[in-house]
Write a structure and sequence with these properties.
By secondary structure, the protein is of the alpha+beta class. It folds into 2 domains: 30 residues; 85 residues, Carboxypeptidase-like, regulatory domain (Immunoglobulin-like, Sandwich). Helix content is 20%, strand content 38%. The protein contains 1 helix and 7 strands. The longest helix has 25 residues. The protein is elongated and about 90 Å long. 15% of the residues are buried.
């Protein structure tokens, strides 16, 4: 009546159908994320505009939140756990360079924002 090959194929199709249905059910049961629970990450690199060298110890600040970080030896910085859906004003300052301001819009889908900044040396 049934050979082994037909039986194995039938069992495979039944199991695959059950697994596929279960995963679909799980996806449809995911709860939407509350805006206040979403967080974003702003990271970037600060370099000298003329030499293109990374700048260490640069102050990167979101003044209205009183958040401030400094760049590492590679000129890199990271600001974590910011609320999504906001626009943040970054102020970037380093002795001997012009101040730099940048608006960062976190209303898009990406949870990470990467910024490349080239600071201009001050004219004396």
């Amino acid at each position: 009546m049934f050979n082994k090959k037909t039986l194995y194929i039938g069992l495979f199709l039944i199991l695959f159908g059950v697994v596929n249905t279960a995963s679909t059910t799980i996806r449809t049961q995911d709860a939407p994320i509350n805006k206040s629970e979403q967080v974003v990450l702003i990271e970037g690199t600060v370099t000298d505009s003329e030499t293109e060298e990374a700048l260490k110890g640069v102050k990167v600040e979101i003044a209205n939140l009183k958040i401030s970080v400094t760049t590492d030896e590679n000129g890199e910085f990271t600001i974590k756990d910011l609320e999504a859906g906001e626009i943040y004003e970054l102020t970037i300052e380093h002795e001997g360079y012009e101040d730099y301001e940048k608006m960062v819009d976190t209303k898009t889908q990406s949870p990470e924002k990467e910024i490349e900044v080239e600071l201009e040396p001050e004219v004396k």
